[in-house]
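Shape matters. Shown next:

___
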Amino acid sequence: MREVVLKLKSFFTEGHERTLKAKKNVAISFLLKGVSISIGFVLIPMTINYVNPTQYGIWLTLSSVISWFSFFDVGLGNGLKNKVAQANALKDYTQARIYISTTYAILAIISSSVFILFYCLNHFINWSRILNTPDFNGGALNHLALIVFGLFCIQFVAQIINVILTALHEPARVSLMNVVGQICVIIVICILARNTRGSLNYLVFVLGGIPVFVQTLTSIIYFKTSYKHVAPSIKLINFKYGREILSLGGIFFIIQIGALLLFETDNILITQLFGPGSVTTFNVAYKLFSMVIMIFSIIITPFWSAFTDAATKGDMAWIRRVLTKMEKYWLLLCVFTLVILFASPLIYKLWLKGSVSVSFSISVAMAFYVMGYSWIMLQCFFLNGIGKIRMQVYLYAICTLINIPIGIFLGKFMGIPGVTYSNVILFVFMGIVLFIQSKKILNSEAKGIWNK
């Protein structure tokens, strides 16, 4: 027992400072994410029972569609992450404050403008048709969409605290915020379930509003205390630096649009092909297998800004060591995914108690999905951190053009799993290309598009 304690102590106290900080963040994030996953598993059947599978599917699809507007940040979030990480590596906190202040100002302007535009156009949008719910009151859906979009616009600005914390090598604090938000959500839904009849409006306010409130309150507290040295200020807003962030963020924006079309269209395809009730089935399966993505995300997230820090200081040897370890962790997660797959029928039975039925074929498709997604995540976090992102633009341009046609074809041929297999096929293609690019860069052999 003593040897185990000593090994654990050495694991967190020996090694490169950059690695130690990442290890501590990973460990804390694992604990918090464990709580988050547990809450998520309780929350899904609770919310489904509070409303019904169809209404829950409407919320999932509507929030998915409206989340597309998050890409109106034109890549500012990821651009800011790299700029703050670079400034932090050089201890230039004034520069970091200028970047942060300017980004908040730009996003506030964008958010306000987009909300006004949506408010004007919302009356003309046929949400009943988009969501394939002809029996649902169209006016009520338009009102619901406006509420969801309004909450999103606030979060659009508030979520910048997540980017800042990650850039400063503190992603565990982001996980803490998420857990606090989830705990508040589950408490409020328990109260609603006991005192009100199922209401989609109430559900939207809780699921969309509470996380926004937590992020906003946390931002104020952090900037008044621990992160006062990087706190935004109106006096430091300088739109000249906004162009600098946008020059990098613009490329990230194109990648984000590609990711949107590749990753976030499944709900729309499924609701159009099979109805909103099937969206719930799909998302229940995704929720189970997304544990793999969550775990790998916890492991890899601290390293985006760490890669930026290492590249800024020319420490490529450290990057090679980390990537080799990450590839081994990915293989272990693939084994874990197969364990979840074969245990999934029992898990669904104990978890959902028959409220939703998920076929094994959907679970198989989802297992391949999360393995492919995690591999691409590993390559992209490295390439994004060092700013070599042009190849991703071309890959997403190709894949997004063919994803929806393939998804429709396979969906009609194979059902819900077919929509997922469309993503899997493209993940394999992208994963191979990005792996080759990573190796070329690490071996100093990258030329042309491979080095941009």
Residues 14-451 form one domain. The radius of gyration is 22 Å. The chain has a mean pLDDT of 83.
